[in-house]
Amino acid sequence: MDARDLRRLMGTVGTARGLRSVRTAWRRRCLDAAGLPRQGAERARVPGAALGAEPAPGGGVVRFARSSLRVRVAAGGAVFCGWDGAGPEPSYALGGPVPEADERAVLEPDKDGGWRVVSERVLVVVGRHGSVEVRTPGGVLLRRDLPPRWWEPVDAPADVEATGPGPSSRWTQRSEVLPDARFFGLGGRAAGPRLRDGTYRLWNTDPGGAFEPGDDPLYITMPVQLVVADAGTHLAFHDNSWDGRVTLREGEEGAGSGHDRPGRCELRMDGGPLRSWVFVGTPARVLHGWAALTGAAALPPAWALGHHHARWGFGSEAEVRRVVAGYVERGLPLSALHLDIDHYRGHRVFTVDRERFPDLPGLAAELRELGVRLVSIVDPAVKAEPGLAVYDSGAEAGAFVRDGRGRAVRGEVWPGESVFPDFTDPAVRAWWGGLYAERLAQGFAGFWHDMNEPVSFTAFGEPTLPRSARHALEGRGGDHREAHNVYGLAMARAGFEGLRALRPGERPFLFSRSGWAGMQRYGGTWSGDVATGWPGLRASLALVLGLGLCGVPYSGPDIGGFTGSPSPELYLRWFQLGAYLPLFRTHAAHFAGRREPWEFGAETLEHAGAALRERERLLPYFVTLSHLARRTGAPYVRPVWWRSPEDRVLRDCEDAFLLGDSLLVAPVLEQGTDRRAVRLPRGRWYDTATGRAHEGPGQVLLDAPLSRIPVLARAGSVVPVAGAGGRLGLGVWGPAAGRTGGGGLISGGG
């Protein structure tokens, strides 16, 4: 029992839900004891010596004594490696057809009995014992995968014809990168965005309360590493959704030749295929290739790029009207208001509490007249209650996850004892997607998926479904060990495709707490339950940057934190950061402090209002960035090294970011700060508040009064902005902005 288990167990004592969670935990343990294969004596295996190779389009298959490796270079330069017949499909990550092979890539013998695949954009070298090196066309090494190791039962055949890792074999892949390399990615990590030495788990997890930078794992884990070094950038993706752990250790450069220590990565997986993709190039090229493989990001409707206000605890229609009226009366822009589980009848999904919300369609229409959309939470758990329409229709359709005996798996969630749709079944996704018709009829314009790791409250053990629970997995069949990490992704697909069918003329707006590689196809995400405090503020930025480098461009935090009552200063600094992030949303628990800007005093209201109006002015720029993200894979929010990955000082900068290519935002992340150092990339940068020019690369000290955070514009930038009367204007920084050659801004009709 770890610390999380102990906290959960203590929190359940003396409550009815707590007693049910004890029963759920015990039932889960019994199901897994009966339904999972017993682990006996095992032996470790390695591929052995290379025996030969067979050419194929884009590369070929290299055969070893106890394994085989398929190497395939795609036309765009992406490298696929699959051991023992593992191919690119089936895969939940891929957003379309497998990229065509590079017909010009050639498989040829290499020295010492190995092989290599030569192509225009990348060189792949396969050693005679199974190592795989990815090099630039000029031969510079970027990544070296050592021969993999897997474990199999001791009674498995040991002759030379024996295959490598089976579908449930544990395996390990060790890799080396350049000594100066820095690691990023692995999904949503509270510490970062640069990933320090340590072990990171690949298992989507509700932390069971508010999280801080030291908590790991969180809601979205992905086996996606972005590695940045002087010699080049590469992205490595191990296409495997099983539970795993990644151990990272940065390298060191010695004083003399031959004394460098490479950076190291060790990936340990509990099962699943041993297959990977590697993309090489600039950060922009790498993310473009990653988006081409996993799918273009969903384009949010323009209103979703404005300010959202949410709370777990809007008790009635009257309170919703009061909050919206507060924004209107104070002239504060508001695009959306979110309703949490408390608007449901007894927390039952796809229902409405008619006593507190007697006319939701009328309320939605009333708010729409004010330019405010309603957004609904949607949880996957369905209360196991005969007579409840959603439960009855799902039971009739056989839609719920089952155990090894064919019985629906039950867990404890907000509505009580619940069952869980199997979103890995296409028929179940179609059924679930049709249920959004009820939400649309209630007047909702957008949706946020919650609790979809999935969560089942347990007093001890993992707060999720039994690992032995059975899933369709697109007809292949399997259990929760493989389905867990893609559950939220498949739910997002069900909702997105359902909404697109129900309202073909509208862009679906959906964001999800959990997901996996490729989730950007269906929408975005948010931080989850980040703790109120200055560490939580810093974690908010780390999450957005890290997710963007994994291909998820639309995300943002709970401004103010989810659980506590922020001070006016903390709230304001969080609000100012949020104004420059893709998803700009305040949110809090019902037991936490309010999040309306006027609740923090006149000075905070004034400065928060200025941030809101600046976000409103920049909406055309955010719309532009959303289209660029869809077309190129470039995130809205980018690390400051985006265009200068060879700048080692910038690679270690984690307290500022680029918004698109034009703006550099330096949020205040520490209490009592009114000036802060800002590290500039190369080029000339203009302080948008003072017009003063600064030359990079280098560090400058800028004022950061409570009224604003430092924002700089790249010289020559042209930024679309909302001008007077809603007309489109242009912000221009540099000599073109004025006859004197200083920095300036032109804003007008266009």
UniProtKB/TrEMBL annotation:
It comes from the Bacteria. Residues 86-245 form the Glycoside hydrolase family 31 N-terminal domain. Residues 298-625 form the Glycoside hydrolase family 31 TIM barrel domain. PROSITE patterns: GLYCOSYL_HYDROL_F31_1. Residues 633-719 form the Glycosyl hydrolase family 31 C-terminal domain. One of its GO terms (molecular function) is hydrolase activity, hydrolyzing O-glycosyl compounds. InterPro entries: Gal_mutarotase_sf_dom, GH, Glyco_hydro_31_AS, Glyco_hydro_31_C, Glyco_hydro_31_N_dom, Glyco_hydro_31_TIM, Glyco_hydro_b. This is Glycosyl hydrolase. The lineage of its organism: Bacteria, Bacillati, Actinomycetota, Actinomycetes, Kitasatosporales.
